[in-house]
Amino acid sequence: MRHQVKKRFGQHFLVDQGVITQIVNSIACQNSDHVIEIGPGMGAMTQLLLDRLDHLSIVEIDRDLIDYWEKQGLSKLTIYGRDVLKFDFSEWFKTTAGPGQHFIVGNLPYNISSPILFHLVQYANQVTGQIFMLQKEVIDRMLSQAGDSEFGRLSVMLQARYDMSLVLDVPPECFDPPPKVDSAVVRMVPKKDFSLSSEEYLALEKIVTQAFSQRRKVLRNNLSSFKNLLGMTEQELGQRAQEITVERYIEWAKAWAISHKNADQ
Ligand code: SAM
């Protein structure tokens, strides 16, 4: 099929077979596992996944591509013709209940990659792992540590929930059309010892958003309305948001949630 590339859907199709094989190998799935691919496009990874799995699900927004997949009439394939940002993954978990690991994979549309990552956090307790191609710069932010210049909201919120590692770097010429930026693949495994309640994770989001609202300012300014609730030290009040570790943000989120619970009682 000839496909008219749609920029608004972030369409850059993978054409390098070596890279495609490396990504699919890195998922390390068994044939009976449950895999859902976000944005299959013309099937660069989809074909290989179909070869290796008993069943595969896909979520795609582009009507032309949905038609293309429907016309293939593949009994092994479940097609969700939806916007992934509005897709309730519980629907998929319900149909794939029972034995088998659950993986979410994809070469994501870069224009909405952070919203997709945040949308998926709510399903992390049901997921075995996620493998995503993203803009390299976004992965650098996801993996950066306190003190690094890229350390920010994305780093804290995702490191609190997942163990993450770089799988491989992918240059623009591996795509058609080539993107203007470098790409990379990241593995995200939900933390086994994740202990935040949904209230505490929401508190973390509030604190982190506020802390990084003005990156150059110290926390005495950015967190002035929170500082008594969080038990911040004098030294911390004089630091900037990017100097505080993920573990310390988590302690603050727990303290904030407790103080709100007490206030409600
Ligand atoms: N997987 C294919 C590949 O590697 O060649 C295509 C990857 S392309 C970067 C992104 C894919 O995500 C496209 O198929 C695009 O139509 C789809 N997409 C874009 N926005 C989407 C959304 N909101 N929901 C679901 N799919 C989306």
Question: What's the topology here?
Answer:
Elements: E1 13-14, H1 17-27, E2 34-38, H2 46-52, E3 56-59, H3 63-72, E4 77-80, H4 89-95, E5 102-107, H5 113-121, E6 129-135, H6 136-143, H7 153-161, E7 162-170, E8 175-176, E9 183-190, H8 198-211, H9 219-222, H10 227-230, H11 234-237, H12 246-264
Parallel strand pairs: 2-3, 2-5, 3-4, 5-6
Antiparallel strand pairs: 1-8, 6-9, 7-9
Bound molecules: S-adenosylmethionine.
Commentary on this structure:
This protein is 40% helix and 18% strand. A seven-stranded mixed beta sheet has the order 4-3-2-5-6-9-7. With 265 residues, it is of the alpha/beta class. It folds into two domains: 7-190, Rossmann fold, CATH 3.40.50; 198-264, Orthogonal Bundle (Helicase, Ruva Protein, domain 3). The protein contains twelve helices and nine strands. Helix 2 links the parallel strand 2 (34-38) and strand 3 (56-59). The model has no long low-confidence stretch (mean pLDDT 95).
